[in-house]
Design a protein that fits this description.
Helices cover about 30% and strands about 35% of the residues. Helix 1 runs antiparallel to helix 3. By secondary structure, the chain is an alpha+beta fold.
Length: about 100
Amino acid sequence: MANAIMIATCSGGSFFDRDYYVDVHLPLALQYWRPYGLESASAFFPRDADFPDVSIGIYRFRDQAAIHAALASPETEAVMADVPQFTDATVSRIIGFSA
């Protein structure tokens, strides 16, 4: 069964608090989006200083409908309102599937 994955990247900006992202933001996303089908959330940080992205978040959902339901939910406002707590970088999303 294929899972749906949302990849959130943060690029640029003048600060990024990795600890806050891992310890506060990811659990917040899990709390609010788990009822819609979010199954896990992970963070990756590129080592290459010249890489344009400062973080990569992998959000694994039950299926594509679950991603769309979570993003359309009223709880998404709280998840997105938390972003300035850990970065001023530009956030981009990509939706895909894994086997």
